[in-house]
Amino acid sequence: MDSKFAWAKINRSPSAIIKSTFMTTMTSPLNSSSTNSQQSSSEKNILGWEGFTLTLPAYWTLASFAGDRDKGNFRITDEDGTRVEVVWETPKGTPNLERSIENLSKAWEKEAKKKKQDFHLANNPPIVSKTRQKKEQLINFGWKGDNKDPMAAHGWGVGWHCAECGRVVVAHLVGRGRETSGTAQRLASEIFSSMECHNHGGWNTWSVFGFQVDIPENFAMKLGKLQTGKIEMEWENPRPADWWMTPKWWGRRPERLGVQRLSAANLVLIDQDMKTWAKRMVPRCNKKYLFTFDEHNSTDDQLWFTGKTWNLRQRLSETAWRFVLRRQHQEIRATVWRDEKDNKLLFAFFDLTSQNEHVQDDVLNSIATHTLV
Ligand SMILES: [Zn+2]
Distance from the CA of 95 to the center of ligand 1, in angstroms? Predict the structure, then answer.
C-alpha cells in the first residue's frame, strides 16, 4: 500500500529524490524507547530533520528519509505502518501549488480506480488555517477510500510554499480504518499546524529517536545512519562552488562535525570502564580521522581526543598552505561521555576553523537524550 502514497507523481523524476550525495541507510529503530506501544498516547516527541520540526505521538518514529535540504522526503510510521509522509522541493520560480496538489490527487484517484477501490477527494478540508501557517500559498487536501481498510481508509494533508525557506512542502497523514475521518483530520491539523519548515536563528534542530542536537544551518548532513542501538550523524560546511578562486579556501578542508549515540551503555561497559572502552574504540571510529587520547584534558566523566586526517597528502598540503598564508591550524577534537540516566554513550567530534571554535560548545550544550514533551 505504500506505493499508493509514494509521491512519485508529484516529482517528475522520483529517482532524483533518492539521489543524494551522502549515505542514507536505515534499519529498524529498535533502540528507540519510543517504539514501546505501552507508552501513554498523550506523550509527544519531537522530530527534527532537514530544517523541519514536528511534534508527534511518542511512539511514531522516522522510518525512512532521502534527499537533502533542497529536495527530499521522509516517512513516519506508527506500530502498524506509514502514518505521515513529508516531501519537499525548492523550485526556482513561483510554483503552481494548486496544480501540483491536483495532479497528486488525480494520480491517487487513478490508482484507486485501477484497483477498483472507493476513492473520493474531499473538498477543501479544514486541516491547517492560513492564520496558523502564514505561507505564500497554502492548500489543504484530503481523500476518503474504503472505510474498512485498516491501514489507509482516508488521508489528510496540506501543501504550502514558504517564502522564507523557499521550499514547497507537502505533508500527508494516513488515517486508519478504526479512526473516524474527524479524528484523523484533527490529528493532521494538530501536527501540521505546528510543523515548522525552517529554523529561526541560524541553527537547525535535528531530533530523532529521543536524541536531539542543534547544528548550524550552513552545515549540510553528510551521513545519517540510524541503526539498532546506534545513531550516527555527520554534517559538513561545504566549500563554496568557486572555492579555488578564494585564497582563504586554498589548502583547506571543509569543516565537519558529527555525533554518535550508543544505546545500552551498561552492557557496553559491563567489564571495562569508559576510558578503557573509549581508548580502544575511538581512535579508528571515523573513516576520515585518526584520534589520539588526550589525557591532559580528560576527566572521569568526559574524555577528550585530538584528531588528524587520514589523508597524508591533504595533511601535507594543509601544512604548506598554513605556512604560506600564516594560517592557524584547523583543530580536530572529539569527546566521549556517558548519560547515566538514559543509559547511553555519546561521542562527538569537531573539525572546525578557529573562527567557528564556539560551535563546539554550542553543539555539545544543545545535545539532549530525552525529548519527550
Ligand atoms: Zn519554511
Answer: 14
pLDDT band at 248 (very low <50, low <70, confident <90, very high): confident
CATH (one of 3.40.1000, 1.10.3430, 1.10.60, 2.60.40) for 8-193: 3.40.1000
Q: Is the pLDDT of residue 26 over 60?
A: no
- What pLDDT is stored for residue 62 in this prediction? 95
* Ligand 1 centroid from CA 78, angstroms: 26
**Hey, do 8-193 and 215-366 end up sharing a CATH topology, with the first three levels equal?**
yes
CA of 215 to the centre of ligand 1 (A): 17
Ligand 1 centroid – CA 158 distance (Å): 14
**Per-residue confidence (pLDDT) for residue 16, from 0 to 100:** 29
**Whole-structure pTM value:** 0.85
| pLDDT classification of 320: cutoffs 50, 70, 90 | confident
SS3 per residue for the chain: CHHHHCCCCCCCCHHHHHCCCCEEEECCCCCCHHHCCCCCCCCEEEEEECCEEEEEECCCEEEEEEECCCCEEEEEECCCCEEEEEEEECCCCCCCHHHHHHHHHHHHHHHHHHCCCCCEECCCCCCCCCCCCCCCEEEEEEEECCCCCCCCCEEEEEEEECCCCCCEEEEEEEECCCCCHHHHHHHHHHHHHCCECCCCCCEEEEEECCEEEEEECCCEEEEEEEECCEEEEEEEECCCCCHHHCHHHCCCCCEEEEEEEECCHHHHCCCCCHHHHHHHHCCCCCCCEEEEECHHHCCCCEEEEEEEECCHHHHHHHHHHHHHHCCCCCCEEEEEEEECCCCEEEEEEEECCHHHCHHHHHHHHHCECCCCC
